[in-house]
Amino acid sequence: MNWLNDTSETAPPGDRLAQLWRGPAILKIPGAHNALAGLLAKRAGFRALYLSGAALSASLGLADLGILGLDELCLFTRMISRATALPLIVDGDTGFGGILNVMRTVREVEDAGAAAIQIEDQQLPKKCGHLNDKRLVPPGEMAARIAAAVRARRHLRIIARTDAAGVEGLEAAVARARIYREAGADAIFPEALTTAEMFTTFARAIDAPLLANMTEFGRTPYFTAAQFQSFGFNMVIWPVSSLRIAAQAIGDLYDSLMRDGTVEPLLHRMQTRAQLYETIGYQDYEALDQSIARSLVPPDVRRK
């Protein structure tokens, strides 16, 4: 079974995501920067995915400064959603412009198969939430973005991210979150909180599903999913982890290949042809066309 003939899912992705985040256990959501990463996450047992603007930008050789385009975002949203059939939260940055742009973004992302879109309260050019000197729009302007997104969506869930904690303080972040919730946000994402106490205080103050960000090399300590649940959060993302580990592995490969002129020393770190074909369902695709002979995987020939 693959996306060409899979008709098993009938409920809209947004509804399926909301059902998951209402569960008794925290929803663990890894980042998937492409469809293959999404398939590997699904194989590991994850039930929802996150498409990070930072990870996608980096995979395209771009900085996470609002340079990513809507068409690029929708292309990867569509590829990941259809390949995995898992609810996908999509990082929509600031919504790609004014009110009408936000509404178009919501429609385009929803049509591409997303379950939710995250919209933040930064100005353009925006920055990674864990970097310095972020600039925020007034709360009313962000509330207008959220209200526009709600008007445009059908099933898509709207997640409002606030970067205010590191700019204006935790109290201001709480105040903004309440305004965004009143504007119609389905869930709230407080970015770059730095202590367990901040997470707990925020959760006690906001009556909404809450999403935590456990990105690496940022301002948030390395809490576990269980700890985030104890703080009162419903979801946790690891947005860039798949890209970081893939980039390091690819860099190691190229260094080794340049030095040795062979990839043989790294074969043990590679997914085999058989494993790759199993992951992507290669023979499931072949089975849809009887004119294609079933492929036989060559033997794993290695020097002894």
Search tags:
alpha/beta; TIM Barrel; 304 residues; three-stranded parallel β-sheet; single chain; five-stranded parallel β-sheet
Do you know the CATH topology? TIM Barrel
CATH homologous superfamily caption: Phosphoenolpyruvate-binding domains
In percent, how much strand structure appears in the residues? Answer: 5-15%
The number of helices is 12
Number of strands: 8
- Uncertain segments are none
Tell me the CATH architecture. Answer: Alpha-Beta Barrel
Taking the alpha carbons of the first and last residues, their distance comes to: 37 Å
What can be said about the biggest beta sheet?
Answer: 5 strands, parallel
Mean pLDDT value: 94
What does this protein structure show overall?
By secondary structure, the chain is an alpha/beta fold. It has twelve helices and eight strands. It has a five-stranded parallel β-sheet. It has a single domain (about 15-240), classed as TIM Barrel (Alpha-Beta Barrel). It has helices spanning about 15-20, 35-45, 55-60, 70-85, 100-110, 140-150, 170-185, 195-205, 225-230, 240-260, 275-280, 280-285, and strands at about 25-30, 50, 90, 115-120, 155-160, 185-190, 210-215, 235-240. The mean pLDDT is about 95.
Give a brief description.
This protein is an alpha/beta fold. It is built from 12 helices and 8 strands.
